[in-house]
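Quick illustration, no need to memorize.
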Amino acid sequence: MPDMDGVEATRRIRSQWPADRQPRIIALTAHALHGDRERFLAGGMDDYLSKPIEGEELMRALSQCGKPAGETPDGPRETRIAREAEEGGDNAIRGQVLAQLRLVLGSDAEAMLPEFIQGFLHSGDELVEQMKLAAAQGQPRDLERAAHTLKSTSATLGIQTLAELAGQLEQRAAAGGMDGTAELVARIDAEYAGARIQLQGPW
């Protein structure tokens, strides 16, 4: 959000929305800094999470919203999510993403899934190309930025292997060294290509 950060957005929501329509607002940051939680809560937010999101922490935060888990045609939503998250073989990543986004989006998941996935794939294509170029040209800062973004988006969607590889690349580039980065970029490229195939529709 280049023109408004989360604290300012929360302040405006709290001041402009009627009390009976106030949403529950949870802060989500890529870097956990000392004092963040207190600052966000003081700014009117209800809770705070840092990336990569841990399942237990996410469930704890969402459980405070007071909404029933609901049912799906295949039974309770939690049961279906657990089954999809445990899918293996060629659908492992697809199952992880379905589980993660349904936990986050709840009843809105079905309608919003295609938009989330297309956004991830569009940015992922660009980020992987940026990594390849930065590695080839020996530009650790550009490499660090691209790796950080891919790590955060992958972790948010529950694509853990890709997030971990991008995190390793981010740390290496942040240290200013380029040794081994080309190999890591190649591994990320291959992992992303596999995820891309699985995530393409229909959903």
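The radius of gyration is 19 Å.
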